[in-house]
């Protein structure tokens, strides 16, 4: 059985120096444009090669601030490393591992601006909310986060498996933000009226509600949602030696499968398309396959019934034409096939939960071009706006929203000063 412990897999000093020497210092570094956070990758790698780790950390923190997280969970193979020109010679520079080397051997040291006494409230503490809060604190704002759990992190702490992201790294972010002056209150806020006294509110609650799969019988006993399963995996030790089915083909489905496997279950993933069409990260898929997780492709779940076990009736599909989004469509055949399982985990997507009188559309919060909801001075950040994305994309959105709001507030202050 595989362990829940994280394989740190960090470079030694000599290994980091050797790997950093491979960077080609491209004039037009495609790795930077491929990075959601636009990290100056050649610069921080160059500083590693000079033995200047503190300076390398400053370069990373100037655009990210979350190397403790990104160096573990970013799907860099599809981003910076996937765009590395070095691949044309042999293989990409291991940017992710070099970032981890910096993160584990340095501490953040941001340049904090003086306080401006403007009170910001962030509801939710996932990657987008934390990124927004960190930038706001550094820029002198008074920030309070309301979170229904006892610790900060959101999906970083309560959804991503520990073998992918050690909780000590999430705690490092929490410790840093509290040290920057963050006020943290444990409260499951349902309405702005519950928490008066702030100048601006920012909804960053993510997409924690599992979407309906549209499958008859999906609410039967023994059919689990991915959100509850991943948030407390130790509560599901009873699936040991049981046959467990994961419905879905994305990154969450792979996480569920690998967690269930570590709990001792016999795991299969049902996916309506082919294995090469699965939207999950290829590296994570390969890890799942190496852990003897079975992929049953071209099976589209139609219904679930229960007698002694759970029976999934599937339509057998076949590949169709390539659609405009680049993914191959599927064609339903007239053939059906049934599989029996002890437990089923739905991992087919998520959406935003309802909050106050904020308007939703298709599982996402509606915002205008200024990130504002239909309620004045209530804005929204991250997956709650965009739908489920990656951690790095959520961080990017949090930082973008802060950048915009910071400019907006400063313009208002300038106008008020001029009018006086």
According to DSSP, the number of beta strands is: 17
Main beta sheet strand tally, sense and closure: 5 strands, parallel
Question: End-to-end span in angstroms?
Answer: 70 Å
Tell the overall outline.
globular
Low-pLDDT sequence parts: none
Mean pLDDT: 94
Helix/strand-derived class? alpha/beta
As an assembly, this protein is single chain
Helix % is: 25-40%
Gyration radius over CA: 23 Å
Strand content: 15-25%
Provide a short characterization of the protein structure.
The protein has 420 residues and is α/β, with parallel strands linked by helices.
Which key terms come to mind for this protein?
single chain; about 425 residues; alpha/beta; five-stranded parallel sheet
